[in-house]
Structure formats: structure tokens, C-alpha cells
Amino acid sequence: MARYGGRSLKSSLVLLLVALSTSRSHGFLGTEKKIKSEVFLSPKLVMNPGNAANPFLFDIDFPRGHYGLKGFDAEMVDEEGNPVPLHELYLHHWVIQPYYVRKGFELSQRDMPRNHGFARQDPGRNLGSKSDFILVNNGGLCRNNVRHYFGLGSETRKTSTYLPDPYAIEIDNPEERPDGYEFKWLLNLHAIDTRGVVDKSGCTECRCDLYNVTIDEYGRAIRPDYNGGLYCCYDKTQCRVRNGFDNGEKTRSVYLKYTVKWVDWDSTVLPATIYILDVTDSWERSQGSTGDSQEHYCHIEYEVKPCKTNGDGCVDVKKKSLMMPFNGYIVYGVAHQHAGGIGGALYREDGERICSSMPKYGNGDEPGNEAGYIVGMSSCYPEPAVKVTKGETLTLEFNYSTTNGHTGVMGLFYILVAQQLPEPESSLPALFQAHAKSMSVLAFLAVMVVVAVIVLIAAVVYRRQNREDGYQSLST
Ligand SMILES: *[C@@H]1O[C@H](CO)[C@@H](O)[C@H](O)[C@H]1NC(C)=O
Ligand SMILES: *[C@@H]1O[C@H](CO)[C@@H](O)[C@H](O)[C@H]1NC(C)=O
């Protein structure tokens, strides 16, 4: 009898502890915010077979006001709203970036400082002077480009960008907006129409010979050893199409359809900041290096040569160690790779893996599952969030298969960093846990028995009261 009773006491206590610990892991329920969601269409791109388009679209539709951005999903659609597959229209990238613009100042594509997003730097231009136009950049290290806020490419359909509670990216804090300025959004969309082209993967990798391009967007000669990449598939360039293919009506309009998710801003939302890290960053640790942005030239893209012997060795591993410019906690991570990519990762100096982000390749025809294309990247939600200290060195690693050579490949890593973690919701279970660790097993058992007895007494008293009050539970 006594043994049986002891066991049931223990098991009821275990139940109690389980109940307490589950209530703890659901502790955010109290602050869970109502998610708002809205779908928008970008201005249209008019495409013909072989066309590359890379416009900068100002003042796109976007939720207005002070809020917390929770997610941004996108895909290319046609005039009827049908998803367009990557083998017809390759989405090289979309990137979005907020900016402040002086009220009444009109921006055009020509005003765009080209040292933005994935675009190539224009040495002769210094537009977007602070007085009229201020870009809001990510917190990353690249000084010359990769300054955009967020963006993805062909992988956009199957990549999770959602940021769980209580985190969000703070948008348009009125205290940060300069007087007389408006907060707006810029979209840079780079799409390549590969209907009827002679070499689909060559066109998507921007091989210069297929575009017959020898000078870049700004009229500068392209180095002879540069075989492909963004210099060769800028806005209004043309990839080679099979003879006779584009006879007949092939012109079509396409749009980026994007879904924005957000929550109203208040003190229960914890801000997360975007940092974009580039494996082609020129920075090297040296004596006296400060990690200052002037030391970071980002090439954005690189080339992987085909391997000589087929087999296991056909992998290009590219690494870069960078000094982190922040104190905080990584709550989200995702890599951006091009076709041929076989994974990206972020490590601590001691080799601990913080996040790996792996590509998903399609194996069919339909949008979201196109064979040979990266249709998604896995994202990381480190649990618990990974603490990083300013000045700490983290290492990026990007792998590409070299069974075939590839031009214009990328290795970007996006991380979202919170300055602060949520307070534990309830102090009671924390107390239990701390005690469970520090006390001897015997003392712990003693406490368990005392608690169980209290629970038992409480239950008996409660039942007796119920009986005396004449209440009847509904279930009996
Ligand atoms: C390639 O460009 C050159 C010079 O710009 C031009 O003469 C030639 O016809 C072009 N070739 C093709 C196939 O378009
Ligand atoms: C990259 O390849 C190397 C060598 O094959 C491997 O050790 C590493 O885990 C790979 N990294 C990722 C992110 O896949």
C-alpha cells in the first residue's frame, strides 16, 4: 500500500513538473501578436525571349507606418496571376531596401546609386546625396554593395523567411525618420527570360559570350578573364536565342507577387537587425585591422572551375572569416546560393556550427519544383538563440559542385540578430529547474514529497469544499 501510494505521489509530481515546464515553453502565448498579411504586385516587367531585366523600382507598394516586419515571400507571376516557372523566367534575385526621401523629391531609375544591392559599383557616380535620398542599409560589413535589406533568388518559393515571436524587424520608427522625409521601399528585380535560348544554364549564369557583352553597363571594358556574372547580364542585355524561336508573339508581362507579414509595433516586440555576410568579402585579419567597413570590399560573385577528374573531389569549398560588428543573439539564418550550390554554413572560431543552410533542388516541371534549379534553401532558427560578442570571428563556408564549371555564383549569408532575449515568462518553473540542478537527489525527492503532499491536501480540501457547497462538476 505504502509503496503504491509513494509512486502515485511521485507520478503526480512528475505530471505537475511537466505541466509547469510545458507552460514555460509556451510562455510567448501571452505576447503572441496578431499577424497582418497583404499581397502586392510589383510594377510589370515586359519580357521577350532572351531578355535580361534588372530595374530599380522606387516607391513600391508596401505596408506603411511603424511596425515589425515578420516575413516576406515572393514569386514571379504572369498577367493572369499564374506562377511562372524558373525554366521560362529565371529569377536571378529580388532585393528590397527602405529609403528616406525628401518630400516632393522624385527618384528615377537613373538616380539610383548603382553601388547598391547586387548591382555593380559605378565609379563615376555619387548620386543619392544625403540631402535628398538616404538608403537604409543592412548592418553587414560590405562597404561597396550588398547593402540591401533583404532578398532572395530562384529559391524564394520554398525558403522560409518567417521570424517567430517575439522578434520582428522594426520598420519606420518615427523617431529615426528625419524631418521632412518620407519612408519608402525600393525593389531591385533581376529576371532573365530563358524561353528559346540556346543554353538555359549559361544564360542564367550570365555567361558573357552568350550575351555578346564585352563592355559593362557603364561602358568599361570587361576583363578578358571574366567569363560571366553580373557585368554581363545587366538591364536590357540579351541572351542568345535559337534561330527562329522568337518569331511570333512571345512578349509577356511578368510581376513579382510578394506577401508581406507584419505586426503593429509595441514594447512586446523585440527588434531583430539584418546582417548580410559575403564569402567574397576581401577582409583579412591583419595587425591593426579594425574590422572597419572601409576594409571590406565585397565581390558578390565568383567563378568555380570544372574539376579535372570526376568523383568525390569535385567540390569547391570557399571560406571567409569575418569579425562580427555586433553584440547580440542570432535568431534566424539563411544562405543564398546559385545552381551548383551544395550548402552554406556559419561556424564559430572553435568550429561549432551555428547554422547550415542547404539547397533544395526541384525534380519536375511545375513552378516551385523546377528540375536543375535551386527552389528553396533551408533556414535556421537556432534554439536557444546563438549569442555573439562584438569582435568575435565567425567563419562562412560555401560549397559548390565542380562537376560542371559555374560563373557568377554567390555565397551570401543572412542573419537576424536580436539585442535582447525575451524574459522568462514565469519565475516559478525557473525556480524549480534551478533547484532541481543544485540540490542533491535526496533533497530533491524530499521537496517532491512535500509538494505532492501539499497538492494532495489541496485536492482533498477542494473536493470537500465542492461537496459542502453542493457543486457538481459537469463531467460527473
Ligand atoms: C556581338 O556584338 C558585336 C559588337 O557589339 C556585333 O558586331 C555582333 O554582331 C554581335 N553578335 C551577335 C551574335 O549579336
Ligand atoms: C563543405 O564541404 C566540406 C568538404 O567536403 C564539408 O566538410 C563541409 O561540411 C561542407 N559544408 C557544407 C555547409 O555543406
From TrEMBL:
The chain crosses the membrane at residues 441-462. Pfam families: SURNod19. Keywords: Membrane, Signal, Transmembrane, Transmembrane helix. Residues 1-27 form the signal peptide. InterPro entries: Stress_up-reg_Nod19 (IPR011692). This is Stress up-regulated Nod 19 protein.
